[in-house]
């Protein structure tokens, strides 16, 4: 239990910096809560005065006392006081609610921004080991769980504590014996709450984890929906989703059911105490030591003690989900970031594009991928990287861009170790076109201009012409102003690839990386694109990863990778003359193509 309290304290300590800027509004909201609870606590005692006054007047009239009557003016004055109390309660609740809502939502706004900014600073390896759906769940569902808990439970926890203190003080001022009996509700309720929370907390953590798993599964299933239909895997997909859904249902049921037991158990304790106190109170009235109005007020105070306990039990599910979500949020905020070894804006000089790999080695965990890799690429050279799947082709590019850092050796750009360069400065030297295209929801013009946000319209059009996509854009109803939808499904895959190439051209980098950039275009477009890319790559250093070996025949240097090592190196003619692994790859593609024809 002590460990859990310490963990909760640690989570709240991490949340404190996000609430600190809005401390004044939180203070005002707490002050308004104090006024509201003070009014609520005073009301039963004053209402009891009306009952006592009426009971006394009726008793005097029944006994035939001289001048006996109902003192309406006294009752009127008490009602006016009650009206003032209720108005003060209402106004304080409105003002307090406004200040609390504003401060909490601003704090959650800052928390979301911090998570988003953190994601931008995380290394690529984090996304290689965590599903996008789970990351999305942390940014959306978990932050929303914290927001709801703070919004609803903050005021109720404070008001509950104040209500307990003031209600008990009022009860002890009325009758100490009855107050002691009523006080037993609190420890009994605390024991019930503690027992249920201890049992259910693990289920709430499992519920949030299952929710993250579901988001990951949904993201995977929906993004691969066409492939699922193509391979007839609907049944397998349904079973996969049902398994995740069943896990979420199981943990959610246990968590919610266990937490729902608090309210009826605490209410049972309250009803039993009211029964005992009603009997004691009646004897006290008959003995003349207690007025009817005070007994009425006392029972009202019992319910005021019960209400906070019931509210906590009702909020326990939300509070526990919030702490589980908070833990997941701060797990991502505590992740190690990409560390910079040099300040921004300190490039070694005008980029030439010379790249040197010196004894580079790299492993994914315990799995070695690159071993003692050595090669020098001169400025303006076109280097093709070929080899079977898993040979390390894409890993080399990831190391060059510092998505990962080398385990051994070093990579130099223009004679400078890239680990001594700011990542943003390093990556500004590169343009990249991937096999998997990425376009955002927006106009075609904006998607191309993403490569250089300061580019003029004529520069965007020139880049589109160089990528041989200008004519296609002009045939569209709105031309460059056509909006690409969120899924990018209103243009073909090949057209999307051409747009990403135009975007890379617009950046005008010194070093260009093409990772199967022509794999999604047809043969006619590939030839047009190859001609354009020859112009684009002229004077630039370029790295081309290709499986179609016919597209790299003109490369200045071809690196043939096999099991993380350079198996062969040279130009197309020299490698073919060696009659080695490259020759086998090339001839196998040629033979396959000839058979197909």
What would your notes on this structure say?
- With 597 residues, the protein is α/β, with parallel strands linked by helices.
- 66% of the residues lie in helices and 11% in strands.
- The chain is built from 20 helices and twelve strands.
- The chain has helices at 2-19, 23-63, 72-121, 124-129, 132-174, 176-183, 185-223, 225-230, 234-260, 262-286, 292-333, 393-400, 423-428, 444-449, 457-466, 470-475, 493-507, 523-537, 572-578, 581-596; strands at 355-364, 367-377, 382-386, 408-413, 416-417, 430-433, 442-443, 483-484, 511-515, 541-545, 557-562, 565-570.
- A hairpin with a 2-residue loop joins strand 4 (408-413) and strand 5.
- The model is unreliable at 592-597 (pLDDT under 50).
């Amino acid at each position: 239990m002590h460990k859990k309290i310490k963990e909760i304290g640690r989570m709240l300590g991490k949340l404190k910096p996000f609430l600190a800027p809005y401390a004044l509004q939180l203070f005002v909201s707490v002050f308004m809560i104090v006024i509201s609870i003070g009014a609520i606590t005073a009301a039963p005692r004053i209402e009891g005065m009306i009952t006592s006054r009426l009971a006394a007047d009726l008793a005097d009239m029944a006994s035939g006392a001289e001048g006996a009557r109902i003192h309406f003016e006294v009752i009127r004055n008490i009602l006016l006081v009650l009206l003032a109390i209720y108005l003060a309660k209402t106004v304080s609740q409105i003002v307090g609610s406004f200040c609390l809502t504003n401060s909490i939502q601003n704090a959650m706004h800052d928390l979301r921004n911090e998570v988003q900014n953190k994601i931008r600073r995380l290394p690529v390896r984090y996304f290689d080991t965590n599903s996008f759906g789970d990351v999305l769940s942390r940014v959306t569902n978990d932050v929303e769980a914290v927001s709801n808990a703070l919004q609803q439970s903050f005021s109720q926890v404070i008001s509950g504590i104040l209500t307990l203190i003031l209600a008990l003080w009022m009860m002890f001022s009325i009758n100490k014996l009855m107050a002691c009996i009523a006080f037993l509700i609190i420890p009994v309720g605390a024991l019930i709450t503690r027992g249920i929370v201890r049992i259910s907390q693990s289920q709430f953590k499992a519920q949030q984890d299952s929710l993250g798993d579901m988001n990951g599964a949904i993201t995977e299933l929906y993004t691969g929906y066409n492939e699922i239909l193509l391979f007839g895997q609907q049944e397998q997909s349904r079973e996969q989703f049902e398994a995740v859904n069943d896990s979420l249902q199981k943990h959610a049921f246990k968590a919610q059911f266990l937490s729902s037991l608090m309210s009826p158990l605490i209410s049972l304790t309250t009803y039993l105490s009211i029964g005992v106190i009603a009997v004691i109170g009646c004897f006290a009235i008959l003995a003349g030591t207690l007025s009817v109005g005070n007994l009425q007020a006392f029972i009202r105070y019992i319910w005021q003690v019960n209400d906070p306990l019931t509210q906590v039990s009702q909020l326990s599910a939300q509070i526990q989900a919030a702490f589980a979500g908070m833990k997941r949020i701060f797990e991502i905020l505590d992740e190690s970031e990409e560390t910079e070894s040099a300040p921004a804006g300190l490039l070694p000089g005008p980029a030439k594009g010379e790249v040197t790999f010196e004894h580079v080695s790299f492993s994914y965990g315990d799995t070695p991928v690159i071993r003692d890799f050595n090669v020098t690429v001169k400025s303006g050279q076109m280097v093709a990287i070929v080899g079977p799947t898993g040979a390390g082709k894409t890993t080399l590019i990831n190391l060059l861009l510092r998505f990962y850092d080398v385990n051994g050796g070093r990579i130099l750009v223009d004679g400078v170790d890239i680990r001594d360069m700011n990542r943003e400065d390093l990556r500004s030297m590169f343009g990249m076109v991937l096999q998997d295209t990425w376009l955002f929801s927006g106009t075609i013009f904006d998607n191309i201009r993403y490569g250089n946000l300061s580019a003029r319209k004529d520069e965007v059009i020139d880049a589109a012409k160089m990528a041989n996509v200008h004519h296609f854009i002009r045939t569209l109803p709105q031309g460059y102003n056509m909006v690409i939808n969120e899924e990018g499904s209103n243009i073909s895959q090949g057209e999307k690839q051409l747009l990403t190439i135009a975007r890379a051209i617009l950046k005008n980098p010194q070093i260009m990386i093409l990772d199967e950039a022509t794999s999604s275009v047809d043969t006619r477009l590939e030839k047009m694109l190859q001609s354009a890319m020859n112009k684009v790559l002229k004077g630039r250093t370029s790295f081309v990863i290709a499986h179609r070996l016919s597209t790299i025949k003109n490369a200045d240097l071809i690196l043939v990778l096999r099991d993380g090592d350079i198996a062969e190196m040279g130009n197309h003619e020299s490698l073919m003359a060696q009659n080695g692994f490259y020759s086998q790859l090339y001839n196998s593609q040629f033979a396959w193509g000839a058979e197909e024809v």
